[in-house]
Amino acid sequence: MSGERRFFRRDRLTGHIAIGVVGVLCAAAVVFGVGMASAKYHLSDVGGWLTSVHRGELVHVNGLSGKVDGKVTLSGSTGHPMKVIQQGGVVLIVDEVTGVVSRVDPAHLNVVQGATFRGAAGMQVVSGSGQAYALDQQKGSVQRLDPMTLATMGSPLGLTGPLGSAGIDATSVLWVPVPTNGQAAPVRSGQAAQPIGIGRAGDDLSLTIAAGAPVITDFTSAQAVIIGKNGTQIKVRLPSTVAQVGKGSVLAPASTDGQLVPLLAGNSLVVLNTGSGSISSVALKLPPKHKLAAPQALGQKVYIPDQSSGDLIVYDSATNRMAPQVPVTGQAGPLDAFVKDGLLWVNGPDSAKGVVVDGAGGHKPIQKYTPDVPGSQKSPVPRVGVPAGGASGRPKPGGGGPTAPSHPRLPTKPPVTPPTHKPDPPKVTPPNAPTNLRATPQPDGTIKVDFQPGGGGDATGYKLLTSDGLTATPDKIGANGPDYTFTVNGGTCGQEYQFAVAALYHNRDHDSEVDSEYTTPTLSCTEPDAPSNITGTGTAQGAKIDWQAPPNADNKKVTYAVNVTGPKTGSNPNLTGTSVTFGDIWKNGTYTVKVTASNPAGTKSDSKTVTLKGPSVNYVGQHAGNPGDKSWLHQTPSNDDTNVYITDYNGQNLLVDCQKIGGHFAHSNGDPYYAGNLWDYIHYQGKEGYIIGYLVATPKQPDWQNYNGLPLWECAD
Length: 717
Fold this sequence. Notes:
The protein is flat, with a radius of gyration of 37 Å. The chain is mainly beta. The protein is built from one helix and 57 strands. The longest helix is centred in the middle third of the chain and has 4 residues, at 241-244. It has a nine-stranded mixed sheet with strand order 23-19-20-21-22-51-50-47-48, with no helix packed on it. The protein has a seven-stranded antiparallel sheet with strand order 24-25-26-35-36-40-38, with no helix packed on it. Among the domains are: 1-156, Beta Barrel (Lipocalin), CATH 2.40.128.630; 443-523, Sandwich (Immunoglobulin-like), CATH 2.60.40; 532-612, Immunoglobulins (Immunoglobulin-like, Sandwich); 617-695, no CATH class. A hairpin with a 2-residue loop joins β6 (82-87) and β7 (90-95).
């Protein structure tokens, strides 16, 4: 069998994934009836590929017009659910029944390569940033692929299954959630890197690639971890509602074009800003018992696919209002949604319809079964009716006919004065309850609560219903607003709060109110910013680390964790000040200092490389021998050759920079008191170098075998 047709048996991949390149698959390519794909075709640069299950087709749609401009028919895939992976110029199709993974050549509109993956039901294929992988999610195997030929590259990696859905970030790193271990495993060029702890073993983990950065959400502990480009981590605490809806019930997108990650937990929509780490939450009125898909963020709007109605539910975060729904298929069935090229694509794989939505909220319907050339088929001109009725000239009901004859007025009787009595109070129609309550913690420790009037009835104003100890500004908002926002003060950082808004109205002879539903539980603070201006200094007490607190640190109840790595290591996980000294770090060298600011809402950290050097200390010289006797200074802590020496230093101060354990020295007189391997690096009369330890009256003499320790530092390697 030729190299292009390699087939790997199950034992070739250690029983995890069997992949075989089965050669070029036959596929009919149709472009507006031009014929088979022997010529090159130019598809729109702003476009997306959508599947049609009933026809076994993959169609390419122009994102600007919503028109089909090319399609590929996949042999043997009619009626099979398919998944499309489209990143950059690579388009892969996964037949989830046969396990065949194929690559589409957009230039010729045909399938140029295929590979068979046994056990497709438990398999995921991911591609992006020049990388491709196949994952057996049940068994935990990760196999690197050539994204063009789909051939295997190297041996598979074994992780602990079952695995979560994986993704590739902007730096070409594959991220794999490993819920069994409570970790996220990074894979670089097919090689496993150090996993990152996210939560506890068995936690419900999900991955979203947001603007190219991995975001791992732990739904069990209600916490999100944002991984920065340099490996920094931002941990954000989410509302407890996320953990209360049940395992597997929170919906999150696999990827987003921007930094906003929407999470849908029941009727609560939580939006995480991965750039700032801030969150907002709003209680939405969603159709009961409808099957919803993962929300998608585009611009200022969040789109929730409703698979029970075949529509998109739209929430506008800029106005905090529900926008009109966007029709997709108009019938129950699966909806595939993703954001690509600044557009939201929603496809009904079991339907002939789809929709493409732009950043402003405009949308264009997609008819997958009619591959019209954009602009070539004009919409039929509507038939214009005849004003005031039909062509016969008959009057249209309600007006427009001949004028009716007039009649003379009859004389009227004088008015009768009714008996005097107190009129009944007018009947009152209560207003509807306020909607779209959204609570957003602010950096200054306050909480913004905004809402929309429910309409109906005659509201006289609105007031906020809060917990004891909290105050709201203003006390009351007028019926006509115009700003429907309360600011809440007095919360305790780390505690969650819920709010409702009451619509007030006059009910006959007394005042009444109609209360809204309560908001999602919300913290009263945001996670702190990262510390800044990190410095390190070598002192007689050890390594002193200083940093500058982030803004509003006192209001946010910020504590700090400091980790120092290098020739020696040290850590302190719970500090309230902005300085710490590590008494067990006293070796000169280069260190990495990481300072993490934490509060109940989350964490942010910063790292800096510092050079630490201990202070020089004066000690008296001793055992110098007779006047004029030479004591040699060496370039290394050993008896190496040298021509530098000092004399007559008994009782004089020698400035000791540091100490080093080195080569053994024994005096020619044979006295073991003058033997040892501890050397001092000194300065004296303009000369410097290593001198054997017994010639300096350091604190631990006559121990010439071990370091003195602070205030003396160990010399760098």
